[in-house]
Specification:
Blueprint (H helix, E strand, L loop, with lengths): L7 H8 L19 H13 L19 H29 L5 H28 L33 H19 L9 H24 L23 H19 L15 H19 L8 H29 L4 H15 L8 H26 L7 H19 L15 H30 L6 H6 L1 H6 L7
Helix pairs in contact: 3-4, 3-5, 3-8, 4-5, 4-6, 5-7, 6-7, 6-13, 7-12, 7-13, 8-9, 8-10, 9-10, 9-11, 10-11, 10-12, 11-12, 12-13
Amino acid sequence: MMVLPLAPSARAQEETPAPAPAAEAPAAAAATPTVEERLADIEAYMNNVARPEKTSGAESLVKGPGPGHNAWQMVSTALVLFMTLPGLALFYGGLVRKKNVLSVLAQCLGCACMITPLWWLCGYSLSFGVDAKSALIGDMSNAMFKGVDPAAVGAGYYWISDGMWAMFQLTFAIITPALIVGAIAERMKFISIMVFILLWMFAVYFPFAHMVWSTVGLMCGPLNPNAAIKAIDFAGGTVVHMTSGWSALVLCLILGKRINYGREPMAPHSMVLCMVGTGMLWVGWYGFNAGSALGADAIATNAFVTTTLCAGTAGLAWALVEWIFKGKPSVLGFCSGIVAGLVVITPAAGFVGATSSIIMGVLAGVVPFLAVAYLKKMLGYDDALDTFGVHGVGGTMGAILTGIFADEKVNSVVGPLKEGLLMNQFKAVALTIVWSVVATAVIALIVKVVLGLRPDAETETAGLDLADHGEAGYEH
């Protein structure tokens, strides 16, 4: 078959391309910030304040975390974790007898490892749930870190990542129950401690973190205009030190004294470890207090200054008082005084000035010393490592002194709350004591019935390291 060529008209029709479709009208270009608005964002970042509204309707070109502020938050978070591991572990570990040193280290490790996934699962949400309406407890709106975006800001503060805010608060949640173990050291079963702490987090810690630091919290004076108790707590005087200190007292009373307590020496087995742990706690506390400014700004600097002054002054005051009453200034006295000073300044660090922190340091070195040296003997309780004497007494005093010394010239949030502040601090203190005491008593009695609290006398006498963990701290 012969194939004929296409007719010229047909060939031309085939070779001519079809006309292109009409182009769509270009979409309206998104508004961009003006130069003035961009500069305003930079000024907001430098001053650690909110990004200003833009009259152009444009979104900020720096919507995420600010590098400097967020970097300080990352460092602060690592420092607070450093307070527990290894700071508190070594501080407490040195103060117990060597047959129990690993038990204390394991308890600190157990707190860190158990609370971390618990915080992810529900703890963060019960403390800071974004949709929470209750003044007493959060909700499950951020369970399993739902909505916690590392690239977003605002959950904690204007320029820090929501992810870093969640991690920063996790480190507080870790160290708080770890403080309790100092009161019951050397005489409580590991499984019982872990179950107690698990229940205590739900009954005490999560509610107090919410009440004191959530925007709808019952006692959050700076953030909640409708707070029933308009108290202030910069870094955890009530949330951390009072809850753990008063809970420690109740738990050690229910648990009872160590075998042969008062009849045989129970001196620290290593003041070297204790001193090293104290130094780590002091360094880590800068993350605790200065980090609670939630940015590298003037408030953070003030907290750094007051923390240093109060800790050093309290260490000196404790040693001097011990020298007067006991005849010698001990290393343990210096260490205890430093920690007491750090505890007392915690709720006030970003609210008071340098001179006030010196006064608070003197009181921190004297009052907890009297509680440890005399009140404990007078009342006859066995607070093994003086958790109540330092954290309970010191945290309570710090919360009250915050109401006296808080200065709007140091931090402007104090101004609107100054009238009636001291009374609100007393109310916050009273609520914290009652809640912590009752909740701890109930939880301890439940654990006692279900699991028992103490090992048998033979195990306690031999030491908890081998019984609970199958290993010894020292093999020589």
